[in-house]
Structures are given as C-alpha cells and as structure tokens.
Specification:
Radius of gyration: 19 Å
Structural class: alpha/beta
Number of helices: 9
CATH architecture of the largest domain: 3-Layer(aba) Sandwich
Shape: globular
Largest sheet: 4 strands, parallel
Number of strands: 8
CATH superfamily of the largest domain: Glycogen Phosphorylase B
Number of domains: 2
Strand order of the largest sheet: 5-4-3-6
Length: 251
C-alpha cells in the first residue's frame, strides 16, 4: 500500500488522531508500506508506522504545450481547492495589491473546490473582488489542457499549510513552471531532489513576493524535467522484488 497525505498535527489534533489510527490499521494489514517522501517517512515513524520504501511522486508527461497566450498579470493556484492550499492567504495578498492600485491583477483558481469547501473558496474570491481584483475558477482542468493552462499563468503559487507529498508540484514542473512556495521540511526535500524547481519564500511579505514576480515572471519559468513515470515503475518493481516470500507479495 502507498500511504498519501500522511496525518500531521498541523491539520488539527483531533483529526490527526483519527486519521493516524486509520493509517496504523491500514499499515498493519499491508505486506509492504510505501510513502512518497522522506518527510512522510518521518511522520510515519512518529506514529509507529513502519515504512518499507520511499518512492517520490513522478513528474507527469504533459506533452508539448499548445500555443501559449501568457496572462498579463495573474496569480494561479492549481488543484483541489481547500484550506490546506492557503487560497485565502493568496487572495488576501492579491487583494492588498489590488487595493494598492494594481487593478489588472487576476486570481486564477485552476481546479475545483474540494468536497465541503465551497464556502471557503467563495470567501476567498470575495476577498479578492472586494479589493478590486479579478477572479476566475476554472473547475477541473482536462489533462490535455494542463500544459497550456499552467503555462499561461503569470505567477504560479503552491502554498501548503500542511503537506506531506504533493503531485501538483510535479505538474507545475512538467509545465515548465517554478511555483512560489512556503518553506517547509517537505519543500526543502523537493528542492534538494529537483534543484531550482521551486521559489521558496518565508511568507513574511507575500504581497511583495507576488508583485516582484508579476513585474518580472522570468524566475517562474524553467525547462521541464523529464517525465518520471517509467522511473516510478522501476522503483515499485524494485520494492516488490524485496517483498519477503510468503507475505502475499508478487510471485
């Protein structure tokens, strides 16, 4: 079994306890436990969950982008929209810029609200609108449109309140984008694995960070790394080959 979104206290103590018990039960029933980052391995160790292998999430193959028409001044958040993505924080920073006279700025939410979080997303949109900012929610982006949609955003943002592994970072990279991210253990691990793929901020002046990148978005564009699906398959085959005989693993 591959454990994802491993519980951590940042999501709330009671929710973390409930989810930890569930993850412990799943891990005990599994013959082989895989996680997607060393950060997740450490979280599992703290919860007395033994991990057999760390296999990072792959960079997807988005193919060559279609004709790009880059936005004039936009800030993009990609994926399911919920409090863990700090959409409200991004909206507040954008609102500060709009209130300061940046009337052409647009908040583009490239995804759909996660179940139960429509009100949260609506409140973030209202924050941006009230200050004079423009907003857009695309809903789910089709796979064939990802390279174009992610490529057209002026400033990609991937702020995580509590992240243990993220597929969206790899998707931004596959689109040739280097998102603005909050510093964290997991983010430092990802930057170590793919040097130069992330723009790390401490978040003390997010509006200022956004303004600088809106004025000069060149740091947000990088050559896309090679797709990692085949590497992912090889890593899982290696893990399966080490599965002890008699545990129900592959013959």
């Amino acid at each position: 079994v591959t454990l994802h979104d491993v519980p951590q206290l940042a999501e709330g103590a009671e929710r973390c306890r409930r989810r930890t018990r569930a993850y412990q039960c799943i891990a005990r029933a599994a013959g082989l436990v895989v996680v997607s980052s060393e950060h997740e391995r450490r979280l599992c160790a703290a919860a007395d969950i033994a991990v057999d292998a760390v296999i990072p999430l792959p960079v997807p193959d988005l193919g060559p982008p279609a004709d790009l028409t880059p936005d004039e001044r936009s800030v993009g958040v990609f994926g399911f929209l919920h409090p863990g993505k700090a959409v409200d924080v991004v909206a507040e920073a954008l609102a500060a810029l709009a209130a300061g006279g940046d009337a052409d700025i647009t908040l583009r939410l490239l995804g759909a609200p996660a179940d139960g979080h429509d009100d949260y997303v609506d409140a973030a949109l209202q924050t941006a609108r009230a200050a004079g900012g423009r907003v857009e929610v695309t809903g789910r982006v089709d796979d064939e449109d990802l390279a174009r949609v992610l490529g057209e955003v002026t400033v990609p943002v991937a702020l995580f309140r509590n992240v243990s592994a993220s597929g969206s970072l790899g998707t931004w990279a596959a689109a040739g984008r280097r998102p603005l991210v909050w510093d964290s253990d997991y983010i430092r691990e990802m930057e170590h694995d793919r040097p130069g793929s992330l723009l790390i901020t401490d978040g003390t002046d997010l509006a200022g960070d956004l303004r600088r990148l809106l004025d000069d978005p060149s740091p947000t564009r990088i050559p896309p790394p090679p797709p990692g699906i085949e590497e992912l398959g090889r890593a899982y085959r290696t893990a399966w080959a080490q599965w002890p005989a008699g545990t129900g693993g592959p013959a």
